[in-house]
Write a structure and sequence with these properties.
CATH architecture of the largest domain: 3-Layer(aba) Sandwich
Shape: elongated
Structural class: alpha/beta
Number of strands: 9
Radius of gyration: 18 Å
CATH class of the largest domain: Alpha Beta
Number of helices: 8
CATH topology of the largest domain: Rossmann fold
Distance between the termini: 44 Å
Largest sheet: 4 strands, antiparallel
Length: 213
């Protein structure tokens, strides 16, 4: 678990929201019951191992990218993990720099493979450098504001409700009120909007938020 919590801290510094569970049973429940952008599975988990978890979530029709971690470097383990539906495989020990690079590759949508920069009109967000610009002017955002904007941009033209936003931007255990989303959205709008122009971020009353052309 030391590695899991070290990874959680490191990934949170990279502006990811991260949930950690201690055993395979809880991991399977989370993977099937919640929505994630990426699932990282250790092969050697108590109760249900990572290979079996991956097999079951694929059988359940869940296509979330899966990265397998293991201390064993045998080719057979890697082949087994990939055969049951894992998208990538890392052998411990590994560097966090490599982990971050592989995560960025897995969470990138196919249309963004050649250009990881997310954009809408003259607003751009680079997930690799954590840089946001509008009209080529750098915008300074807090960690949560950056995560909110990235989630909106990855789902542009889609209305996202508050529950979806909370589950993607905050940890599962975070006690977040709906009003917190409203405050963060207001601060984000204040920073990314241009005076005299329509807001990029739209509130759809009773449904949620969207960012669209």
């Amino acid at each position: 678990m030391k590695l899991a919590h070290a990874m959680k801290r490191a990934l949170e510094l990279q502006k990811y929201a991260v949930d950690v569970v201690n055993n395979g049973k809880d991991g399977l429940d989370f993977a099937i019951g919640e929505e994630f952008g990426l699932i990282i599975l250790d092969v050697m988990l108590p109760e249900i191992d990572g290979i079996e978890i991956c097999r079951r979530i694929r059988e359940a029709g869940i296509h979330t990218p899966v990265m397998m971690l293991t201390a064993r470097g045998q080719i057979s383990d890697k082949v087994t993990g990939l055969d049951v539906g894992a998208d990538d495989y890392m052998v411990k020990p590994f560097s966090f720099e490599e982990l971050f690079a592989r995560i960025r590759a897995l969470v990138r949508r196919p249309a963004q493979t050649n250009d990881p920069v997310l954009r809408i009109r003259d607003l751009t967000l680079d997930p690799k450098t954590f840089t946001v610009k509008r009209n080529e002017e750098i915008i300074e955002l807090s960690s949560k504001e950056f995560s909110l904007l990235e989630y909106l941009l990855r789902n542009k033209n889609t209305v996202l409700n508050k529950e979806q936003i909370i589950s993607h931007v905050w940890d599962y255990d975070s006690d977040i009120l709906p009003s917190t989303i409203e405050v963060h959205m207001k601060h984000l709008r204040d920073k990314v909007d241009v005076a005299g122009e329509d807001s990029l971020i739209n509130t759809i009353r009773g449904r949620g938020y969207t960012i669209r052309e």
